[in-house]
């Protein structure tokens, strides 16, 4: 859920930029270190960023025929962790703002927080917890991606409700925004979870080296998953 | 769509104007839109940005109108919520049997937000349609944005075009094979598309790495910086326009900064 340019009034867009700033700074620091250690990370991160952009600009199939787009935040969070995902999110959101007028410059902070920080962080934590508990990999990916999507939209509703409490107060406003978004976002989260799960399945079947190199799956898990698929 | 936007950015009539000035006018207009307490100043920004895009940059009006329609659905949902949760003033419309009503205050706030969103969108498109991305990178570099961020952004930018092309090819061949006939199939096909795209992306990333290594990549990109001086009349026009918007904003209720 992108908040449009001009939608957040004055104290709030500055506040969200200040909140997002430290995450992006930590991400940049990690990125700098990674690039110095292993030079090949920069092109790989760049293609991942481009992938997220393209994925989010494609129309996703949805029940009610409305036009919806996947966020791709879950995948970024699972693959690279929340801080680097924040940097990728920042870049993707700037391009989306300038190319597509999705989001904007003043609302960049709020959007980076919901889509680049909160969503990926949840996906990352769920994925780590799931693999540690030894749960089914695909189920974990599905839950991680779907939850990342849901959290993104809940955070957006919180941001809007804080800025526009109206006369019903924060809670009332939050319920109103959440209810309106839920119509499109809950089915969307489920569909996106399924799609990211399929993406994961294809990677395991065709090019599992990517996942083992990023330390996401051990060789033995890949072996097990591939045997199960046959 | 993206290629077309970039084509216009490369060939429009304001191409030779200093990119710094265009970026400054665009962002300053956005800030004025957000800080204006009344809908007049944002609407003025929207009108003048549209005029600049159509008359000065000579972008076809039909194409520009189509662009403006893109984000409409995104904004309508949130505006609807605001319309109903803000009470106060006279009741304009009541939904029968539900505790929902549109009041004057809610309508005013919704109108203000629509005007701000519209003004902001026109300013964003002004930047997008007149300034090529490469020149924006150049400005960011001069503003001392960390080099690693700019390098990453430039590479990402380059790959977006390649990937969109590939995604389009995969999508078209899936449609030809009835991949989006039913809902279940379309989810499966979309997952297949995204998966195939990701793997191809990764492979082209690895290929790029080899190609860059072969050309002595040392972790930094060189950027050919060409500086175009800001012309004095253009700067004067820009400043005049911005102060006019500021004056309108001040005369219609002041400026809200925090």
TrEMBL record, chain A:
Membrane topology: Multi-pass membrane protein
Keyword field: Cell membrane, Cobalamin biosynthesis, Cobalt, Cobalt transport, Ion transport, Membrane, Transmembrane, Transmembrane helix, Transport
Pathway the protein takes part in: Cofactor biosynthesis; adenosylcobalamin biosynthesis
One Gene Ontology cellular component: ATP-binding cassette (ABC) transporter complex
Primary location class: membrane
Family in the record: Belongs to the CbiM family.
Protein name in UniProt: Putative cobalt transport protein CbiM
From TrEMBL, chain B:
Membrane-related topology note: Multi-pass membrane protein
PANTHER family cross-referenced by the UniProt entry: COBALT TRANSPORT PROTEIN CBIQ
TM ranges: 23-56, 68-89, 109-131, 230-257
Name of this chain's protein: Cobalt ABC transporter permease
Subcellular location: Cell membrane
Entry GO terms, CC: ATP-binding cassette (ABC) transporter complex
Keyword Cell membrane in annotation: yes
Any one biological process term the GO annotation gives: cobalt ion transport
InterPro entries reported in the protein's UniProt record: ABC/ECF_trnsptr_transmembrane, Cobalt_transport_CbiQ, ECF_CbiQ
UniProt keyword annotations, A-Z: Cell membrane, Membrane, Transmembrane, Transmembrane helix
A Pfam family assignment: CbiQ
